[in-house]
Amino acid sequence: MILSKFLDELPIPPVLKPLQKNESYTYYEVNMTEIKQSLHSELSETTVWGYEGCYPGPTIEVASGEIVFIKWMNNLPDRHLLPIDHTVHGAHMDVPEVRTVVHVHGACVEWESDGYPEAWFTKGFKQVGRYFRKQIYRYDNCNHACTLWYHDHALGITRLNIYAGLAGFYLIRDQRERSLNLPSGKYEVPLLIQDKTFNNDGSLYYPKQRPKPVSGLETSIVPEFVGETILVNGKVYPYLKVEPRKYRFRLLNASNTRFFRIKLDSGQLMYQISTDKGFMQHPIGIRQILLAPAERADVIIDFSNLEGENITMTNDAPTPFPSGSPPNDNTGTVMQFRVILSLSSVDTSAIPAYMFPFHKLNERLALKVRYLTLNETRDKFGRELMLLDNKQWDAPISENPKLGSTEIWYLINLTKDSHPIHLHLIEFQILDRRDFDIERYTKEKMLHYTGAAVPPEPQERGWKDTVRANPKQVTRIIMRFGPYTGLYVWHCHMLEHEDYEMMRPYVVIR
């Protein structure tokens, strides 16, 4: 279905107001419900799932160090909006069809409040998963200012719950950010980018079968899902009216599988000021920015001296990344900026020359080095199955870092896709990527490098929680584990991979 571009204005998600706020803590309640929402003016209203009655959910804004309690409440129907595959782990017939658990992606949080995939709950908490511990989650927000997001994380149906609409921004602010004099207020705009496909009646399309159906199975997990249209903040190809001045945009790739390589058709620079977990040391001027699923970046775009211009944000990342098909005219378009508002006041905001000290972690301090493979195999039905370290979800836990210790992980990609690998709880730094001989590794289980180590790209030189592990490369990351102990997960953030075994528990021990 081809929809007209730039018909609808970009919606800005509202900022959620707390139910209680005092010197000791802040308390929110967040409802998940089924709603009808207009995603494009040429479509009938679409049934989606939303937090607090909207998709994407409202933005939650907190201060660094603020103690926040959130009661996430599932008030969704008993039947799922989308086709469930009951052959997938965690989604067998012995669990309720609709269940949710919320993960604040990038949060520094106790494990009981992290949204462990088997800590799910149903409507009114009538049924809960075996790792469910509490109805009210606690977030200590021990991060510097950064762009996080919250989304569903229920085992076996994460791809369906997020695609149905369960995602929103979670922003942490601090004093340093306020001192930088960045564009703020209405000049700071979150952009949650996703792809979806629609049926003719405006409803969400998600495949019931893989291209080669398995006889006797109602539905089937697909290796990856890519949509035919691009949405920003829940609107297809929206436009945003802007003044001729600087704006700050918080970019989030919240797609199931699709990578975005974002450019402006004006050819002008965007100034990146942060990575996933906060400010970089210095801003960098870039003409394009690559975002894998779950990656975030903060950019400043200057519309000064562009009065009357229309500027289109485009995407040219192939799917699957990096060796798939290039986008078409529809999936190559993201949104439009219209510089048609008059300047309401003099723009005194800045692109600071220096933002935050970035101290590299010392490799010599690493207590442990882990060699972990990214594998592709087949299940008993002949379907593609992606694994971490060649282990399935239920295999015994093999990663058990000590609290406060530093480790280096070698992510050895033996597949043909780039995988965005996300670790819960902690932040890391990318050390390097290096080409290696896959055939020799497969035979000998030894790494034979075929090129020099390449440092991370300039846009990745900061604190991260999601890293692109490219095919035929070893990606090295370094991190310190803490400040909590307990049960967490690491996984590929391509949701079809995550739901079908490309996720592993890990435990931080004392």
From TrEMBL:
Molecular function via GO: copper ion binding; oxidoreductase activity
Highest taxon of source: Bacteria
Domain Plastocyanin-like intervals: 44-92, 99-176, 208-321, 382-508
Transmembrane segments: none
Family: Belongs to the multicopper oxidase family.
Protein name: Multicopper oxidase family protein
Species assigned in the record: Siminovitchia acidinfaciens
Lineage: Bacteria, Bacillati, Bacillota, Bacilli, Bacillales
